[in-house]
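Let's practice the habit of predicting before peeking. Look at the sequence and jot down your guess about where helices and strands might fall. Then scroll down.
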Amino acid sequence: MKSFLFNFILIANMTNVRDIMVRNVITIDHNKTAKDVALLMSEKQVSSLVVIKDGNPIGLVTERDLSRKVLTTDRKSSDVQLSEIMSLKFRWVEPMTPIEDAIQKMINNKIRRLLVLEEGKLVGIITETDLARHLRSKLLIDGALDDFPPLKRKIVKNG
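Done guessing? Here is the structure:
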């Protein structure tokens, strides 16, 4: 029986970021407030938003940013500008990046999500959840295939 890690590496080697990225990325304009962030996250049921300025990504804001930078203060969320809580440094990959490279980048940088940019334009996002969902589906498929015995074929020689 193959190990979990072996299966994960094997699966990762066969897939590019574009195959599992979320294409419908929820964005928010840079001039909004923390309250706007919280309302949009709640409405869209997401844990992060890509911050946009002039149509280009300039940062990322997460639930963690809200909890650490707003909830721990006595300020009203409507008084806290998004620029005060968002992360300006974000990591990104291209759609054709192999999954194993994306995973390594996430591990090396201790991050949970990567933006996907193509020619500088936002085309998707990939998160730990997306990676786990992909791995689960692949393992279930592989497991189902393992349940079928090999086909017995009869070889017929001409002549």
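How did you do? The beta strands are 27-29, 48-53, 56-62, 92-93, 113-118, 121-127.
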